[in-house]
Amino acid sequence: MLKSLIKVGKNIIGILCFGLIISFILFRLMQPASPFHLFGIQSFTVFSNSMEPTFQTGDIVIIRDTDPDNIQVGDVVTFRQSENKYITHRVNKISQYQGDMSFTTKGDANNTTDEEQVPTSSIMGKKLFHIPYIGYVATFISSKTGAFLFIFMPLLIYGWITVFQYTANKPSKIKGRNYS
């Protein structure tokens, strides 16, 4: 009795985890340009060399939601430049712009500061840490080909194995005889 309850519990947990994974995959495929956001933490892939040597192309930068009042000169922030374009640069100067606080930013590898002031409404967050080169993998996996190869194929194989194990462990009954 206890074994069957544990088995049912494992199956329910497996189904819930499978459902969460599928939901996440579908969300990422339907909205690939929107950043992943969980508990105030977001990840962004570096696509240029403007922050070298701090970040390399292909790194992932993990940021945390931050109150703009807590941002200081020298902090690395990610901000929204346009609908689907995010930039991660270092704060070079804090000033007032059109009655609100704004930031002058600059890429570590750039010779000059960015042309436009960054208003507080565009700030996505402050750098928490970064992971080298993982951005290449994440970008590929979020593509349709990558999702198929790294996510759907393993799930399909897992499903086949599960069905095979279930049918292999189920006793066969032909004409009332048990051949297991």
Outline the structure in words.
The protein is an alpha+beta fold. The protein has a domain of 101 residues: Umud Fragment, subunit A, CATH 2.10.109. Helix content is 35%, strand content 30%. The chain contains three helices and ten strands; from the N terminus they run αββββββββααββ. The strands form two sheets. It has an eight-stranded antiparallel beta sheet, with helices on one face. The chain starts with a helix and ends with a strand.
Write a compact overview of the structure shown.
With about 180 residues, the protein is of the alpha+beta class. The chain has three helices and ten strands, in the order H-E-E-E-E-E-E-E-E-H-H-E-E. Helices cover about 35% and strands about 30% of the residues.
Strand order of the largest sheet: 1-2-3-8-4-5-6-7
SSE sequence, one letter per element: HEEEEEEEEHHEE
Largest sheet: 8 strands, antiparallel
Radius of gyration using CA atoms only? 24 Å
What distinguishing features does this structure have?
180 residues, alpha+beta, Umud Fragment, subunit A, eight-stranded antiparallel sheet, two-stranded antiparallel sheet, 3 helices, elongated
SSE topology:
Blueprint: H1 2-30, E1 37-38, E2 41-45, E3 60-64, E4 76-82, E5 85-97, E6 100-106, E7 118-119, E8 123-131, H2 134-141, H3 144-169, E9 173-174, E10 177-178
Antiparallel strand pairs: 1-2, 2-3, 3-8, 4-5, 4-8, 5-6, 6-7, 9-10
